[in-house]
Amino acid sequence: MKKIIATLAFASALFATAFAQDATGRWKLDDGSAIVEVYHNGDCYNGRIVWLENPTDNGKPVTDSKNPDEKLRSREIMGLNMLSGLKKDGAEYRGGTIYDPGNGKTYNCSMKLEGDVLKVRGSLDKRGLLGRTMDWFRVK
Q1: Beta strands, E only, the chain
Q2: pLDDT (tens digit, 9 = 90+) per residue, 96-129?
Q3: 78 assigned to some structural domain
Q4: Domain, as residue range, for 40
Q5: Sign of CA dihedral 132, 127, 25, 103
């Protein structure tokens, strides 16, 4: 009986650890300006803005005014998909892109989960050499 209980406890701990290591969920940006919900769609991980510290400008919703495509400049930032196409590769997520509505640019993106911190790296090159890493914090 003790072996069964020990085995169940070990299996439960493994399941909890595996679940905790998933990047899905809500993440607050390191500057506190937004919360991004990372979700799984097929074999890709994407992320959309679900909360903004300053959601309006002069009483109107903040829009994607710096987008290089003039047709997209009127779309709202709230609900905007800013992470797309990331695929899980072991402990990391790779091969995707991240859009920065602050400057209207899209970068290569990779992410790595370290406990309740998601290390999000945006870079100019696919190898991730020329870029920066941001810490996003899990919202519970």
Answers
A1: 25-28, 34-41, 44-52, 56-57, 60-61, 81-89, 92-100, 105-114, 117-123, 131-138
A2: 999 999 999 999 999 999 999 999 999 998 776 7
A3: yes
A4: 24-138
A5: positive
